[in-house]
Amino acid sequence: RFSGPVVxxxxxxxxxxLELSWHGGSACDLFGFGFRWRSWTTRDRRxxxxxDAYHFxxxxxxxxxxxxxxxxxWVDFLDxxxxxxxxxxxxGCDVVLEIDxxxxxxxxxxxxxxxxxxxxxxxPEEQQARLxxxxxxxxxxxxxxxxxxxxxRLARELGAEFVINDRVDQAVADLEELIRRRxxxxxxxxx
Length: 191
Description:
The protein is α/β, with parallel strands linked by helices. It has 7 helices and 9 strands; from the N terminus they run βααβββαβββαβααβα. The protein has helices at 14-22, 26-31, 59-67, 101-110, 124-133, 138-158, 168-186; strands spanning 6-9, 35-37, 40-41, 55-56, 71-77, 80-85, 95-98, 115-120, 161-164. The strands form 2 sheets. A 5-stranded parallel β-sheet has the order 2-7-1-8-9, with helices on both faces. The chain has a 4-stranded mixed β-sheet with strand order 4-3-6-5. A hairpin with a 2-residue loop joins strand 5 (71-77) and strand 6. The protein starts with 5 loop residues before the first strand and ends in a 5-residue tail after the last helix.
């Protein structure tokens, strides 16, 4: 396996597809099982959101963990905080971090050669429709769309591989292929 973690920026509705893939789908098999390290957030859980999508905590709990040096990275994001605790994977496992692009940039400065994957909607219009479809209020959608422009720019600067989430099954297959190629390049078969 390669030394760096897989850093995935899950965007909008794709997060749920990743959640499903961890529970017996093909991505789970591919990661073999890659060690998924759950992010913390101070935001409220959205209606219908898997309770295991994040470690949901209060602002006081989050800040106490920051004070203890418990995060690999953390960021203020819109009106809440989110962060990734220091991973403690089982021996021989890749670490899979589902974090935003700012967190991915931080991890990239701390870890040698991580594979950064940026999940994006097929278009800004589709991203806006997905945000509206999950019930975000108009001001939240507008703020998120403005932030998305900056995130795409940062992803390009970071050299992230872009995966377009047009069809969930195809996007998961694209993720698998990028990870497989990386593993093969880092550990070529002996001839």
